[in-house]
UniProtKB/TrEMBL annotation:
SUPFAM superfamilies: PYP-like sensor domain (PAS domain). InterPro entries: MEKHLA, PAS-like_dom_sf. It comes from the Bacteria. Residues 13-154 form the MEKHLA domain. Pfam families: MEKHLA (PF08670). The lineage of its organism: Bacteria, Bacillati, Bacillota, Bacilli, Bacillales. This is MEKHLA domain-containing protein.
Length: 156
C-alpha cells in the first residue's frame, strides 16, 4: 500500500478503495462523496463522524488505516496503529470469535450489525455496536484486505 499522507492518514488510492468497496458491497456511501471536491476524499474519511479502519492481506493482517476517531478510540498514533496486527485490537479471549467473523466476511463480501468487544492500547475495553465490515476489492477485482466502520461504542 502507498505511504500515507501525514496528518490525514491515507493516500487517495487507499481512500478510493475504502469508499468504492463499501459502495460495491452495501450500495451506500461511506462518506458524502459529493463534498470530495471541496475537501479531499482523504480528509473526508479522516474527519468522518464514524470510526473507519482497515487491514491488509498479510498472513497476520496489519492495520493499514484508521481515521481520527479510530486513532482516538484505540489510543494510538498513526504510526502505532498502522504497525499493529489487526487481531491485537481484540482481547485474547475475543480473538477466536473475531477470526470466525472475518472468515464469514471474506466469504460473503460484507456483514453488517457486527457487535464485539475491543481493547485500546491502554487496556480500556469497549463494546462496538452494529459495525459494518467489508472486503476491500480494487478495480481489477483483487482482494486488498478488509475494513470496518461503526458509529456506536460503549466503554465497559
Amino acid at each position: 500500500m502507498d505511504k500515507p499522507l501525514t496528518g490525514v492518514g491515507a493516500t487517495y488510492e487507499h481512500s478510493k478503495l475504502l469508499v468504492d468497496s463499501y459502495r460495491r458491497w452495501t450500495g451506500q456511501e461511506l462518506v458524502p462523496v459529493e463534498n470530495s471536491r471541496e475537501k479531499g476524499l482523504e480528509e473526508l474519511l479522516f474527519t468522518a463522524p464514524r470510526v473507519i479502519l482497515s487491514h491488509g492481506t498479510e498472513s497476520d493482517p496489519v492495520l493499514n488505516y484508521g481515521n481520527r476517531m479510530a486513532l482516538e478510540l484505540w489510543e494510538m498514533s498513526w504510526e502505532q496503529l498502522t504497525g499493529t496486527p489487526s487481531r491485537l485490537t481484540a482481547e485474547p479471549m475475543e480473538r477466536a470469535e473475531r477470526d470466525r467473523f472475518f472468515t464469514q466476511v471474506t466469504a460473503n463480501g460484507y456483514v453488517d450489525n457486527y457487535t464485539g468487544i475491543r481493547i485500546s492500547r491502554s487496556g480500556r475495553r469497549f463494546y462496538i455496536v452494529n459495525a459494518t465490515v467489508w472486503n476491500l476489492v480494487d478495480e481489477q477485482g483483487i482482494y486488498r484486505g478488509q475494513a470496518a466502520t461503526f458509529l456506536d461504542y460503549k466503554y465497559l
